[in-house]
Amino acid sequence: METVPKLGNNVPPKKDKLQGKKKKPRRYWEEETTQTAAGASPGPPRKRKRNRELRPQKPKNTHSTKKSRISKKPQVPKKPRERRSPGPQRSLSGAQDPFTGPAPVPVEVVQKFCRIDKSKKLPRSETKIRSRLEAAEAQEEEISVKAARSELLLAEEPGFLEGEDGEDTAKICQADIVEAVDIASAAKHFDLNLRQFGPYRLNYSRTGRHLAFGGRRGHVAALDWVTKKLMCEINVMEAVRDIRFLHSEALLAVAQNRWLHIYDNQGIELHCIRRCDRITQLEFLPFHFLLATASETGFLTYLDVSVGKIVAALNARAGRLNIMTQNPYNAVIHLGHSNGTVSLWSPAMKEPLAKILCHRGGVRAVAVDSTGTHMATSGLDHQLKIFDLRGTFQPLSARTLPQGAGHLAFSQRGLLAAGTGDVVNIWAGQGKASPPSLEQPYLTHRLSGHVHGLQFCPFEDVLGVGHSGGITSMLVPGAAEPNFDGLESNPYRSRKQRQEWEVKALLEKVPAELICLDPRALAEVDVISLEQEEKERLERLGYDPDTKPPFQPKPKQKGRSSTASLVKRKRKVMDEEHRDKVRQSLEQQPQKQEKAKPMGARPSALDRFVR
């Protein structure tokens, strides 16, 4: 019962124990005993200020068990996750994808990018080596599939030239092509009238952006032929016989009358190489950083431009060397001689790798396509021939020209250009890997002077012609590859990108000793040379160190090492080895089929002598 306070006293009335007892605040990690009101936020409650003075202090040293304030939640056993069957994938909108999995790739497109010959079986080798070979083969197959799938992203397509019904494309002149194409393509056709210093030789850079040309009377110039911006122009006051860009457009090699000179893109002379004298032809091997020179004295010289040393100087023993070209596939140099033969050279060999008899008279021009499978030659017998370089070296087709072709050039897509006097004829084939058809020309163009140099521009449908009247840039639809590799030959690269590419190319430089006819043979084992080395080794040592030494029994104690026991043990081992050899020889011999005996024949005692 509540007591009524007396009047005049300021004492508050006493409350009941149940009402006066302070309610314990609930922590947010404890379970909620009462139902939360509708609309209340489920988050943790706000912290309240506590009056530490009113909290009684607990003794420090207490041995009584402490009850945890954190209430343990009842543990519910987790249900195992059910594996869903791989059904059709759905997008965010809930629509079902009708094309599940990766896009299929045609087998023909994959084979175009595949570089492994699956017809050859893997050799029987150790398990570890065989697993590595299988992994490499699987990786190569995956890369070829990715390359075939990414081919769809190539935006550019090769050009083509088609006449109307029954119209011959050879009768279409350059003025008609310029009127039909767009303004940017029409600007690629131009003529440089330089009759004062001609005839001219020309060369395009690997990116196809820059052009260098040199006249017989000493005129040397280099320019960005797309924007027509002149890089340098000098007169060396000496006859220029040939000109070549080195690994980039920043360096230029000029074969002058006496020696070989190296210039930069500003026209400043950097080097004068006097060991290469009286040069007639130049060729640069980009992956080996080798400059090949052919001279009047009959020497073929290889100069390593990365270190400035001569790698090899080979004597062709065929007189003056006027005809030279390179095979882009294997970096082999082809030399044409006055006796009608074409010889193939490598700096690793002092003798030619092969000799091909091509013409009855002297050879006037040689060209090899980008795939390295076909070679075109022309001679004094007015014959133009296409040869197969895949081991047979046999002529595939031939054509007799009214005048012998003095200059030949292949494009990236297999078009063949031939300069006969002041006329340039171009033949086309069925594709990149097929030889050009010599029945009917694809295009024909007449110049203002005699042709002295031909080259197709990389990644552009342009043919550069150097003649006695200057330089002419022709439009040839379908001549070049429409898409370029931006990491290898980028015509739009900056100066910083070019410097980084030079460092990478120097690190990946291929040694000159690896130049051979078949580059795929580098990954194989030369069995003949291995056997020859083993034979020479045995002759030098006088015995075979790999043979098994004779058996020597170990000495034993307690009288078991007597002479008779040692001989007995040796004979036992010899007999076992003899039995193994006989067993192996019997397994190697073909088993003879026994003659079938007639049914019902009685056995005889003489059957033991029947063979």
Automatic annotation (TrEMBL):
Entry-linked Pfam families: BING4CT (PF08149), WD40 (PF00400)
Keyword Phosphoprotein part of the UniProt annotation: yes
Keyword list, A-Z: Nucleus, Phosphoprotein, Repeat, WD repeat
Compositionally skewed regions (Basic and acidic residues) per UniProt: 573-584
Gene Ontology biological process terms, A to Z: maturation of SSU-rRNA from tricistronic rRNA transcript (SSU-rRNA, 5.8S rRNA, LSU-rRNA)
Domain BING4 C-terminal: 441-519
Compartment(s) of residence: Nucleus, Nucleolus
Any one cellular-component term (Gene Ontology): small-subunit processome
Basic residues bias (residue ranges): 45-82
Main location: nucleus
Region of interest: Disordered: 1-104, 539-611
Biological role stated in the UniProt entry: Scaffold component of the nucleolar structure. Required for localization of DDX21 and NCL to the granular compartment of the nucleolus. Part of the small subunit (SSU) processome, first precursor of the small eukaryotic ribosomal subunit. During the assembly of the SSU processome in the nucleolus, many ribosome biogenesis factors, an RNA chaperone and ribosomal proteins associate with the nascent pre-rRNA and work in concert to generate RNA folding, modifications, rearrangements and cleavage as well as targeted degradation of pre-ribosomal RNA by the RNA exosome.
PANTHER family from the UniProt entry: WD REPEAT-CONTAINING PROTEIN 46, WD-REPEAT PROTEIN BING4
Subunit structure: Part of the small subunit (SSU) processome, composed of more than 70 proteins and the RNA chaperone small nucleolar RNA (snoRNA) U3. Interacts with DDX21, NCL, NOP2 and EBNA1BP2.
Protein name: WD repeat-containing protein 46
Organism: Delphinapterus leucas (Beluga whale)
